[in-house]
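note to self: dont lose this again. the chain is below, predicted strucutre after it. 93 aa total, dont forget to put it in the shared folder this time
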Amino acid sequence: MVVGALEVELHLPGCRSLKDKRLVLRSLMTRLRNRFNVAVGEVDHHDLWQRALVGIVTVAGDTAVAHSILQHAQDVVERDPRVEMIDVHVEMR
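---
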């Protein structure tokens, strides 16, 4: 069993309030959950309007599958016009 974790630090330039931020993140996280069957959550920068650290986790039978799922999830985040990726960190255990 392999647990893959992806941390994505985001800049949300269009957000002018925490409410705006929550709408964008909720939409993005729901899309990731539904499409890839992963666990997703905001793990840091809770009080900042235009910053977020999102954690995405998957469990798979081997490293290649976990890495592929996380890469596809990262691609979805990267293509979202409402967010800009600042930093990405991937870890496999």
